[in-house]
Amino acid sequence: MLITAFNCYGQIAIPSQVARPITPIIEKLPGELTRIRETVKNPVDTTLANASSLLDKASDPLYALPDAITIKQSNGTAALKEIKTPDGFLAIEKEWVLVAKEADIKALSDPDIQVVEKHYLQAIGQWMYTLRITANLEKLSAIRDSLPAELQQQLTRNYVYLSQTSNPVDTSRRQMDSAPLLTSSSHSPSAELAKPDVKTCSLASRVGMIDTPIFESHEAFAHIDVTQKNFLSKPLTNNTVHGTAVAGILAQRLASNSLIFNASVFYERSQVSQGATLANLLEGLNYLAEQNVDAINMSLSGPENEVLRLALASIDKQGIQVIAAAGNNGPAAPAAYPAAYLSTIAVTAVDSEHQIYRWANQGSYIDFSAPGVSVETAHPTLRTSRESGTSMAAPIITAYYACALRHRAHRGDALTSLIEASIDMGKEGRDAVFGYGLLP
């Protein structure tokens, strides 16, 4: 049972103070922690269980990204223009990101390169430059090749990462995967969400999340404290559904007086799709690291990117664990990032029958599975909705990890606790579908 393995759930007195920052025991890293990480990320048989049957049942492609769109401000003017890059991912047109020392920007002195924004990222110890590049790709390639080797890998497109609730490619899946919003006036699900249960940790935690804004007034957050910061530089439309849902799942499993720090980075692409630029993700991660959080939840996915990998590796060295959604692009899709990075815990979703979510990514990078199909969580209507996707499974593991860290104060022990507590699913041992197993 998870309660026994963690020894941190049950009817235990709630602390009277909010969660203070802790310094995880990571001395002589990479000793034990590296060994644990290598075990967690050890390549497994990448043959996807039941892939052929899934392909037979699927009526539409199992892997496709949404079309690029132009995001407009409230006055109708264009704010962001997405494009499809040659590698098939979304990015902001003509925008690139450089993470480097302040003096390194001189290496990009060219009339076709304009610095749009610059920020110092304390958590990474580098400057981040958002660049507008009007040069053609041939010239840009020549400029890049002229840079020192270390700068070449730190210059990248301003990619777009997508939230992982349902699947934005096909909005009909949202109807198939999610139950309607609960609206009965005789039922108060928000009050039920606020009640502690046996899955609630007994020690207050500090948890970070990268998401949309959270509707803080929801009753589900009455027992915790929510602090938010917006990182969108332009007045873009966004709703609070996704962030409120993710935070609601965290709140169900966090002790009273826990703290949630939310970096709001998503802009609204449609009613079921949100996008976040790489530049905003880096700013959000920097902010959360400064809050000394125990863990960071990232219910989003996108392309592999060396700049993001380096940023996450730097945060990892500070003792902060990142937990990410495995992706909703289907079992035939390639690995999704940041979930597939070595420093990150990747979480997939299962339904109430413990069957894998139909649209969940699969692969050797999957670490754990958790409920993520039609799960009830907080909604900005002051009631609840049922949401699906690996976005909804990730915060369950984030809460479990934060609790384990508070009790063990050792990252290696916390990760081992999750592994030992997981319920083996699918093939015996770790597999490409469920990872080590299910944490309910």
Question: Care to describe what's here?
Answer:
This is Peptidase S8/S53 domain-containing protein. Belongs to the peptidase S8 family. The protein is an alpha/beta fold. It folds into two domains: 312 residues, Rossmann fold; 83 residues, Alpha-Beta Plaits (2-Layer Sandwich), CATH 3.30.70. 26% of the residues lie in helices and 24% in strands. The protein contains twelve helices and 18 strands. Strands 1, 2, 3, 4, 5, 6, 10, 11 and 13 form a nine-stranded antiparallel beta sheet that branches. Strands 8-9-7-12-14-15-16 form a seven-stranded parallel beta sheet, with helices on both faces. Strand 10 and strand 11 form a beta hairpin. The longest helix is centred in the C-terminal third of the chain and has 19 residues. The radius of gyration is 21 Å and the shape is globular.
